[in-house]
Specification:
It is a single chain. The chain contains 9 helices and 18 strands. The protein has 320 residues and is α+β, with helices and mostly antiparallel strands. The chain has a 7-stranded mixed beta sheet. A 7-stranded antiparallel beta sheet has the order 10-11-13-14-15-16-12, with helices on both faces. A two-stranded antiparallel sheet has the order 1-2.
Length: 320
């Protein structure tokens, strides 16, 4: 059965609402469908799910694997795990309280592994517990900075995980216990965080150790609008290129009104999600525009041109 058909059959509200309250389901429907299509689940598959959450994705997976398959689902939140056990009592599924990065060795090997949260690197347990020919779908940080996550598809071939495909999107970072989630979104990985009202967080992150995150965050707030340097539709492809290239002084950040990525060189310059460029100086803007021109000369390398590869336990981008 196709993923889209299964999503039409399964009532999401049944899982995300309980006693009039909404159970946190941080993953958007379109992202769930995309990742389940990447997972390519077959009837009879044994699947390891990292992040039980509301149980909605578990319900979808059970429909896809059928009665002959098996689902093992892990979460760090005991209440969610217990709730899922009750909802799926008698089904071909197990629910356990466990840090997802450890996997669940007792049920291995698995034909498919899917993670609804992002580890900082590829867990050794996942590699060991994935069956030969199996598929793994998870997001990973592609740089040592916030908002650098990319969703990936790996297949195990001759005992090695081989990167096949990347897609837009990411999930909250994996943590050992629920209390670690005081911050939200990219702020979890940021080098400097400023708290706003209504649980808003403004942040700055860089993989350049020579930069002062707080100082550059303040510069980002002061940056002035200069010009439109990208089409809004080009932003995501350019972002992948930015993550692929290891340019000195690169950063990601959000001031609330503006979010994006850029570089520090004789000042600070960045592009926001609408393709608009901001900078604190003309030299900084010119430096960043040269990087944009380089991207144009190389043919606007983007999502379709890249694949994930493992460098040790770290997932990075590589051109196909």
């Amino acid at each position: 059965m196709e993923v889209g058909q299964v999503m039409e059959r399964v009532d999401e509200d049944f899982y995300v609402k309980q006693d009039g309250k909404v159970i946190q389901q941080s993953t958007a429907r379109f992202a769930i469908q995309r990742d389940l299509e990447l997972l390519a689940v077959e009837e009879g598959s044994k699947v390891l799910e990292l992040g039980t959450g509301s149980g909605y994705t578990a319900a979808l997976l059970l429909e896809l694997i059928g009665e002959s398959g098996k689902l093992v689902s892990l979460d760090i939140e005991p209440n969610l795990t217990e709730r899922a056990r009750g909802m799926f009592a008698g089904r071909n599924a197990e629910f356990h309280v466990q840090d997802g990065r450890l996997g669940w060795a007792e049920g291995a090997p698995y034909d498919r592994i899917v993670a609804w949260a992002t580890p900082d690197k590829m867990p050794k347990a996942w590699v060991e517990q994935l069956a030969e020919g199996g598929i793994l779908v998870s997001s990973f940080l592609m740089a040592d900075m916030a908002d650098s996550m990319v969703t990936t598809q790996f297949r195990k071939e001759q005992g090695v995980l081989v990167g096949k495909q990347i897609e837009r999107g990411s999930y909250i970072s994996m943590r050992e216990n629920p209390a670690d989630y005081d911050l939200l979104g990219p702020a979890l990985e940021a080098d400097f965080v400023e708290k706003g009202s209504n649980r808003e967080f403004f942040w700055f992150s860089t993989d350049d150790p020579t930069l002062d995150p707080k100082e550059q965050f303040l510069s980002m707030k002061k940056a002035e609008y200069r010009e439109q340097i990208l089409l809004e539709t080009e932003y995501e492809d350019f972002r992948v290129y930015f993550l692929w290239k290891h340019e000195k002084g690169r950063f990601t950040g959000s001031t609330g009104e503006r979010s994006g990525f850029g570089m520090v060189s004789d000042g600070l310059a960045f592009v926001d999600r609408h393709g608009k460029a901001y900078s604190t100086s003309e030299p900084a803007l010119l430096h960043f525009k040269k990087f944009v021109e380089q991207w144009l000369v190389e043919g606007k390398i983007g999502w379709k041109d890249m694949k994930p590869v493992l460098q040790g336990a770290r997932a990075i981008l590589e051109r196909k």
